[in-house]
Amino acid sequence: MANATTTKTKLSDGLRQAAHPVRGVEDYNPLMELIGNARFVLIGEASHGTHEFYEQRAEITKRLIKEKGFTAVAVEADWPDAYRINRYVRGVNDDHTPSEALTGFQRFPTWMWRNTDVVNFIGWLRQHNDTLPQNATKVGFYGLDLYSMYTSTDEVISFLEKVDPEAAERARYRYSCLEHFGEDSQAYGYAASFGLTESCEKQAINQLMELQQKITEYAQRDGQVAEDELFYIEQNARLVKNAEKYYRSMFQGRVSSWNIRDRHMAETLDELVTHLDRQGNHTKVVVWEHNSHIGDARATDMGSAGELNVGQLVREKYGRDSVLIGFSTYTGTVTAAAKWGGVTELKQVCPALSASYEALFHHIGISSFLLNLQQDNQAVKGLQEPRLERAIGVIYLPETERVSHYFYAQLPEQFDVVIHIDNTRGVEPLDRSPEWYIKELPETFPWGV
Question: What fold characterizes domain 2-70+284-436?
Fold first, then answer.
């Protein structure tokens, strides 16, 4: 036991020397140097409801935009809702405020994007774009996720009604096979998976193929804005195809559905870069997603179970042209729910388990720091041994935390950089309910006995 304690103390001492304290945005200079000329910077979060993760991710992104010419922010959000923000920050729609531009985010969990940190960043992005020279490339904001199957079918049909009424009729007919379930994607997936209804796979594929064949014809009718809008519509059709497959796979096992979703997000990222590059740019993209999507799955229990993720796929394709950044915290509060579709609450985060990376970082004694995991020193090598790592999504269940929120990982293989903020607080939703305000903690917290 003494040897284990001595080893842990030595590792903590080494990490304390290797860590770079972060007190302000200027303390990210070492991170900017490490990023260098990388084209993809993927920035994670250890929960979907922590203020500091959103705030610091935004600060790093601002520096990447201003100092390194990044022109796209791609996030773990639905494509149509995020594209409304894209139009707003580029000044090409009728929304007057960031909050108004976020109105489309009505699906649970609304706080994930409808929060004050996102409002602040969207406001900054619009202001930045407004100050650029007339012919400069404006920074865009895009969603990578696929949960908007029915919204996306509506977008495709609505567009075609304006430019090609006959094609709109064919699209309406093809997508009608999805309409028997009252826009309940999971109900469709269940029925199609168990043969209770015909699969709409062929119709979704055929609609995408027809739209792709007609894109050139539609593009000849207008200029640059139309080119962006055509890409938007094509991506909606691609999303419907992938979402249809995703919802059918949900009842075939977690690995299958997870992999379809992350492949879709990686594919969307590739298509986005190809589209933006056609406009004469060498596009650089910042990606915002949860650590579980950003960190290389091959270094975690996920990989052992057969799951892949966006971070792994980007690394495999772009290698050193990508940098993966993770976040962690020891304790504090988080905005989350107790069940899917449940009430938004401000929940107390239990102090991290003693065998975790988070507890080790807490033991270092630096409230906020940056750790370069590419360093060749004993401290980073000491992190190679698999440890527990915490992940809080939109649901937080402190009473079953070990089972619900921890997995094993090799941090230096999972990320290039980790940013640890020891004590954090929940994001502030734009739509706050009485349940969101923190309740008085029981005297037995955090043990609950």
Answer: EreA/ChaN-like  fold (3.40.1660)
Asked if residue 446 has a cis previous peptide bond (ω within 30° of 0), the answer is: yes
Cα 185 to Cα 16, 175, 182, 346: the distances in Å are 49, 13, 8, 29
Mean pLDDT score of the chain: 92
Residue whose C-alpha is closest to residue 44's, from 396, 431, 429, 411: 411
Going from the C-alpha of 331 to that of each of 97, 397, 421, 442, the distances in angstroms are 34, 14, 9, 16
Q: What is the rounded CA–CA span in Å between residue 444 and residue 447?
A: 6
Q: Which two tokens stand for residue 269?
A: 């990222």
371 three-class SS: strand
Beta carbons of 45 and 328 less than 8 angstroms apart:
no
pTM of the full structure = 0.93
- Give φ, ψ of 381 to 5 degrees: -60, -35
- How many whole angstroms separate alpha carbon 398 and alpha carbon 390? 11
Where the chain has pLDDT below 70, the residues are 1-7, 196, 222-225, 438-449
The per-residue b/e assignment along 318-329, b for 16 or more CB within 10 angstroms, e otherwise, is eeeebbbbbbbb
pLDDT in tens, 268-304: 999 999 999 998 889 999 999 999 999 999 999 999 9
Sequence-ordered list of residues with C-beta below 8 angstroms from that of 32, at least 6 positions apart, any chain: 63, 64, 67, 68
From the list 161, 145, 160, 125, the residue with the least C-alpha distance to 80 is 145
Tell me the CA distances in angstroms from 356 to 22, 330, 361, 368, 387, one per residue in order.
22, 10, 9, 17, 6
